[in-house]
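Continuing from yesterday's entry. The apo prediction looked reasonable, so today I'm repeating it with zinc ion included to see how the binding region is handled. Same sequence as before; SMILES copied from the compound registry.
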Amino acid sequence: MDFPLLEITDDVRAEQWLHKYFHPNGLLCPRCGASVERARRFRQMRRSHVTNYRCHLCDKVYSVYSGTIFANKQLRPTQVILLLRGICKGESTAALARELELAYDTVHHLRQLIHRNALRLQPETPLPDAITETDEMFQNAGEKRRKPS
Ligand SMILES: [Zn+2]
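Holo prediction written out below.
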């Protein structure tokens, strides 16, 4: 059963959440590094509902998606959060595409990019403790087990 997730979520609050998690040190102009306080609200995008900012110092237009895999994708903030949640929970690409009203290929491509980034961000050193917790198995898959005979 597919749920009407987009009808019960709030894009304004979702965009605030994305600001917090995509830019924990604050949203900065991708060209000159000025903070978003040195920019003005330029426009609200009709399709994605995301606010675009124009930097006062260099005129660069940017948004919460700038510098992320969601740049130029026209996804609503609620779609992005629910997509990330669904991928983390292991939901199928087909189900996510239907529930989030996205093309299958879009979800598939974003899933691949997210997995690639997650792999790149994994620590390369094994954990120092002798006991492995369940959640650690996903971080260091295969690094603590014995070599196969
Ligand atoms: Zn700038």
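Comparison notes:
- The helical segments are 11-22, 77-88, 93-99, 104-121, 136-139.
- The chain is about 35% helix and 10% strand.
Will overlay with the apo model tomorrow.
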